[in-house]
Amino acid sequence: MKKNRLSDSIWVFGDYRNYFQNRVTLQLIAKGKELAKELDKQLIAVVLGDQVHQYAMEYVAHGADVVVAGEDPGLMEYQVDTYTAVLARWVEAFKPQILLAGATSFGREFFPRLAKRLHTGLSADCVALDVEKDTGLLVQTTPSFGGELLAEVVTPDHKPQMATVHPGIFRELPHDPDAFGCIIYPEIGPLPEIRVKRMRTRPQQTHDIRLEDAAVVVAGGIGLGSKELFGMLSELADLLGGDVGATRPAVYAGWAEEERLLGQTGKNVRPKLLISVGTSGALQYTTGIQGAETIIAINRDPNAPFFKIADLGLVGDAVTVLPLLLDALRKRV
Amino acid sequence: MEIVVCIKQVPDVPTVRMDRERMTIIREGVESVINPLDYIALEAALELRQKAGGHVCIITMGPVQSEVALREALAVGADQAILLTDPDFAGADTLATSHVLARAIQKIEPFPDLILCGMQTTDSDTGHVGPQIAEELGLPQVCGVNEIHREGKFLVVKRLSDGFVDTVKVTLPTLLTVTKGLCPVRDLPLGALEAAFSTKDVLEWNMTDLDLKKEEVGFAGSATQVRRLRTPPPRGSGDIIEGPPDVLVGHLLRRLEALSILDEEDEKK
Amino acid sequence: MRLEPTMKQAVIRRSVRKFSERRLIAAAVEMDKTEQFPWDIAEEMAGLQYFGLEIPATYGGAGLDSVSTAIVIEEISKANAAMGLCISVHNGVAASPVYLFGNAEQHRRFLNPLAQGKKIGTFCLTEPNAGSDASALETNAIRDGGDYILNGNKVFVTNGGISGINLIFAKTRADGKDLGFSVFIVESEREGLEKGPIEDLMGMRGNPVCPLSLRDCRIPLENRLGDEGGGLKIALSTLGGGRLGIAAQALGIAQASLDASIKYAKERRQFGKAICDFGAIQDLLAEVGTRIEASRLLTHRACDLREKGKKYTMESAMAKVYASEIAVEATRVGVQIHGGYGYTKAYPIERFYRDAKVCEIYEGTSEIQRVVIARELLKG
After folding, report:
1. Which residues contact residue C350 at a Cβ distance below 8 angstroms, ignoring those fewer than 6 apart?
2. What residues of C are annotated to the active site?
3. Fold of the domain spanning B2-216
4. Within 10 Å of residue C11's Cβ, how many Cβ atoms?
5. What is the span of the domain harbouring residue C336?
6. Which residues does chain C have within 8 Å of residue B198's beta carbon, measured at their own beta carbons?
7. Rounded Cα gap, residues C142 and C170, in angstroms
8. Which sign, positive or negative, has the C-alpha torsion A100, A105, A108, A114?
């Protein structure tokens, strides 16, 4: 491996603390590889921890040309200070052109600090990455106003071009056990003292899962007509392992707490599935949910504007459909 | 405890409308508010002040109109408000913004024990400025905090991070970015608003006051540039099914199976 | 000339709007249905100084200017007209005269609890035989040593069912001599004052309006507001502010109707398009929208005169008559745009229609307002 190939390359930060983060890393390796091909560069995954060999191997199997790994007991915990120190050092040594991370909690806490230390630009939670034809710059498409507007951002005069990327946007490459790649272990250097001491850590319980993070969201609007019917949504959400959201009129009607409010004045959700019942499709609401991968709508009115953004629209009365649906699901889950 | 809270004035989301032809935000009729999470940071600072004493100072970088946000913060209960404003500050990305804010914090006497920011803003939604201020000031940072306890020279804070509930102990001075659930936002008594606008002062610092150069701030000091703005492509509508309830439920169940949310029905049953 | 709200007024509007949307909209439905006054919400509002809008901070009030006060009342009424009425009357014609005409001792005893929302106030002028013609008052106060003895009947007392402090207008007599009207501050618990049953109203049902009777009600001298025989002066000075309160309230109802109508017209589809795409609907919306804007300017202009200490008799009458008539028109048009649904209780527009009507009646009917306006126009 020539040094000049290693420098000027595209780097992906290997985020692996949980399964979900690791998937985002693999998605980014796939996308980074595509960009690398376009720019004729190498895709390099960089991974830090106390024992990272298995992740390094996995990254190679999923498309990384090279894995730059750092193993040290002092790197066992995700710590912004230590990770920033090591990665900044390596970036200065190897000078990657592009540096990507998943927009996970850690990615979004760590990368801003790293970008600042490297005195370069960073765009947040990108939903698209492209190469600009004339300049070869990375065009980072980043949402603002809760996804109402997309900004195409470039970092023309600073290196590396850094971005955190929204999970689930890109598709990972299949695992290829025969893939060839090399793993290198550059010198880590001294680690800074730990100033943020972890006292306890526990996996999140269902009750700490924020509505924003739920894979399935069942949302209800004023069209449900009664608090009792709205209440059925909780059982539906439970059966599907999800959580309940509400539109503004439903919250005003006292059917749901303010914390469940979806939309412009409430929460933005991007679940795998959103089931929306008795919601007409007011913009204030739809802006908060249009990031959902699949939207299923149930509404009496076949002309409800909400059907326009639904992947599956069921024209029917919730009064009859919901109990039937709950019955069917109770038998099956 | 001396606390600095960094706030940003953002368009009030319910009033924001898009000009879909020109791909811009319609500014007319848009109200500006304190970014909701910054508001929580402010309330949290006041709660800490109540327990530990000290002062709460609010800073914001923005055009002169941002004074409104600072006055509202004074109405909520902040002791001091500083507006960082200069025509050259315009067009700043998070790198340049954090530089101005960090420089201002260094100028505040005494240097704060705690700096609080909202985890994200509702407009640009980056969440960068907090960690970048911490980096420039050489302070530790914890992002997304939803519980704060003071233990002597330390803060014990809790936050949700990637599916884990972390409880960490951090030395002071430090910077925290905060999120929903940390503390409630109270309604404002009208008299407090009246007083904040008629009797309180807002300090103003410009580029010279902060000993900054033009190339460090605003558009010139930014590493990123916005090439263009666009609106996301509209979602296409999918299948619309009409029919009796059992047919509708059948369609729904099949879609759940297709999405692997529900296992395929056991044929043998 | 400034025709825009100040930074402060804009923030006050937003602040009150957020509170009202969160706490008052749902309550409006309940209040209309049950006729129960929500004390818990009123207590919250007291904490936010909604009961002492223009009263200085030394008494626990908010110390707002008149335009801000109108903005607060408009926003509350937009969400909940019955609550807007409570706040409007309490501030405009109860707390305000006690502040303006009360002595230090009366400020301590009556203004503090009023401004802090610990007591709700009423203004009792109207009687069974004295409405628009206030000279026909029959309630009388007869001097008896250091006290007055009050006898008479008051009707349609807004806030009557929830009041703690009542301003009673009565003819004063001493030693058989007629001394003109005086105003008495009568606590609800005072012996001889009795509240009648709550009226079954067409609209504003959340506000407990009731008659009030005085039977040999003994009032100490210290409870007389202003001079003996000074009632007319108090009434005239108070009614101007009262009219502005009603104008602001009507404005809120009109704006709520327009907002609801626009929303409905955008959502409701007929003949394959949203009904807001039809010219006939657009005409209705345009007309109402224009008149609401005009009425807001009239109201704020009159408030500005009041704030500057200038005469605003005609301007407040103009604001009141115009705003209350546009409220009725906006709600009528609103029901029309909502069609059949507008005639049901599924939408709030029918309540707005019922709530709006009384704005043309109380605090001086539209007819009386026009008399006031004409008199001013023809002066000199």
Report:
1. C335, C342, C343, C344
2. 363
3. Rossmann fold (3.40.50)
4. 24
5. 232-378
6. 8
7. 9
8. negative
Q: Which residues are paired to A101 by β-bridges? A: A164
- List the domain boundaries for chain A: 3-184, 206-332
User: How many CB pairs (< 8 A) connect B and C?
Assistant: 60
Question: Looking at the partner chain, which of C6, C44, C72 has a beta carbon nearest the beta carbon of B190?
Answer: C72
Tell me which chain B residues have a C-beta less than 8 angstroms from the C-beta of A333: 262
pLDDT, tens only, C41-79: 999 999 999 999 999 999 999 999 999 999 999 999 999
Q: Is residue C1 part of a domain?
A: no
Tens of pLDDT, residues B59-94? 999 999 999 999 999 999 999 999 999 999 999 999
CA distance B68 to chain C (A): 7
Nearest to A44 by CA among A183, A188, A187: A183
Which residues 209-248 in chain A show a CB within 8 A of chain B?
A: 210, 216, 240-241
State the CB neighbour count (10 A cutoff) for residue B31. Answer: 16
Residues 134-193, chain B: which have Cβ within 8 Å of C?
Answer: 187-191, 193
C29 plus C127 within the same structural domain? no
Tokens of A290: 């249009």
User: Which chain C residues are within 8 Å of A253, Cβ to Cβ?
Assistant: 26
Note the ipTM here: 0.92
Cα C225 from chain centre:
21
Cβ contacts of B31 on chain C, cutoff 8 Å: 10, 14
Domain CATH for C309: 1.20.140.10
Token duo for residue A161 = 């071009």
Q: How many domains does chain C have?
A: 3
Examine the fold and report which residue of C70, C87, C120 is the final residue of a domain before the chain moves on. Answer: C120
User: Using the beta-carbon criterion (under 8 Å), do B193 and C15 form an inter-chain contact?
Assistant: yes
Whether B156 has its CB under 8 Å from any CB of chain A: the answer is yes
Query: Rounded distance, CA C75 to CA C251, Å?
Result: 9
Q: Among partner residues A253, A258, A280, which is closest to C267 by beta-carbon distance?
A: A280
**Residues C107 and C97 grouped into a single domain:** yes
- Quick one: C267 and C335 in the same domain? yes
Q: HSE of B56 in the Cβ direction (CA atoms, 13 Å)?
A: 26
Residue B268 in this model has a pLDDT that exceeds 60: no
Inter-axis angle of helices C66-79 and B190-198, nearest 10: 150
Task: Give the type of residue at C371.
Answer: V
Closest Cβ–Cβ partner in B165, B169, B227 for A197: B169
**CATH no. of A206-332:** 3.40.50.1220
> What is chain A's pLDDT, residue by residue, as a tens digit (333 residues)?
444 467 789 999 999 988 778 889 999 999 999 999 999 999 999 999 999 999 999 999 999 999 999 999 999 999 999 999 999 999 999 999 999 999 999 999 999 999 999 999 999 999 899 999 999 999 999 988 767 788 999 999 999 999 999 887 888 899 999 999 999 999 999 999 999 999 998 887 655 567 877 889 999 998 888 888 999 999 999 888 888 999 988 888 888 888 888 986 678 788 889 999 999 888 778 878 887 888 999 998 888 888 888 889 999 888 889 999 999 888 877
Whether C2 maps to a domain, the answer reads: no
Mapped onto helix, strand or coil, the DSSP state of residue C358 is helix
- Distance CA(B167)–CA(B180), nearest Å, equals 17
- Give the pLDDT of residue A96: 96
Give the closest of A254, A282, A303 to C26, CB-based: A254
Residue with tokens 């001396």: B2
Residues C89 and C203 in one domain: no
Is B144 buried (19+), middle (13-18) or exposed (0-12) by CB count in 10 A? buried
Q: Which of C100, C120, C140 is the last residue of a domain?
A: C120
- Cβ contact (<8 Å) for A252 and C26? yes
Spans of all domains in chain B: 2-216
Q: Do A195 and B225 touch (CB under 8 A)?
A: no
The domain defined by A3-184 folds into Rossmann fold (3.40.50)
